[in-house]
Amino acid sequence: MIQSREAVVGRSTERVAAGSGGAEGNARLTGTTGALLIALLAVEGVTILFIRPLISVHVFVGLMLVPPVALKLGATGWRFFRYYTHSRPYVLKGPPHLVMRVLIAPPVVLSTLFVFGTGIAMFVVKPGGGILLGLHKVSFVVWLVTTGLHVLVYLPKLPQLASSDFRRATRLPSARVRVGLVVTSAAVGAVFAAATFHLAAPWLDWVRLRH
Q: Are 26 and 79 in contact (CB under 8 A)?
């Protein structure tokens, strides 16, 4: 019996997906990256409460967050792409909750881009109030609210997702690759922060003198 090209390609794609952990592997990558982000964001949150003495830590951790945030957005975006292009494992796993897709995900992504975009953009302008600092503050408030809701929804699932690839009994194919990606994102973030931190010196001085 002659099989259609679409059927052959479909089965081949599913085998590749299975070898990389498929939809479940993507969920674990997202969860492990999310756990790393929560830890770093907790530190960032403390620096906001004590911004004057901890402004240097605030800037360093903010820069360090860029690669892990990019990895998280990439993993989440990949899930959406595979689901809406009708990849069978992702379709079977199902989409995120409708409210999360429609009401939470768009402002989380947009506010994330604004928070980090305005933060990095401040490195190339003179310190001061201005519209850029205002946008940074406003986008942070939006980001804090929407991301907080996002975390609350997925927090019950996070421990299992983040730990499964570290346990032999629950490990899936390419577990080391996923863990390596998360560790690498943190390492690249630290290098990026160390390499660009000096650019924030004028703003650090401005905050210390102003507050």
A: yes
Structure tokens at 108: 């989380």
**Torsion angles phi and psi, residue 171, rounded to 5:** -70, 140
DSSP for 57-112, please give it. Answer: HHHHHHHHTHHHHHHHHHHHHHHHHHHHTT-HHHHHH-PPPHHIIIIIHHHHHHHH
| Phi, psi values for residue 141, rounded to 5° | -60, -45
- Put residue 103 in one of left, alpha, beta given phi > 0 → left and psi -120 to 50 → alpha: alpha
What is the residue type of 90?
Answer: Y
Q: What is the mean pLDDT of the chain?
A: 87
Per-domain residue ranges for the chain? 5-210
Gyration radius (Cα) of the chain, Å: 20
Give the model confidence (pLDDT) of 60-109 as tens digits: 999 999 999 999 999 999 999 999 999 999 999 988 777 778 778 899 99
Residue 181 pLDDT class (50, 70, 90 cuts): very high
Number of Cβ atoms within 10 Å of the Cβ of 156: 8
Helix (H, G, I), strand (E, B) or coil at 119: helix
pTM for the full predicted model: 0.85
Contact 139, 115 (CB under 8 A): yes
**Token pair for 118:** 């305005």
Report the pLDDT value the prediction gives residue 7, as an integer from 0 to 100.
41
Specify whether the CB–CB gap between 181 and 72 falls below 8 A. Answer: no
Cβ proximity of 32 and 161 under 8 Å: yes
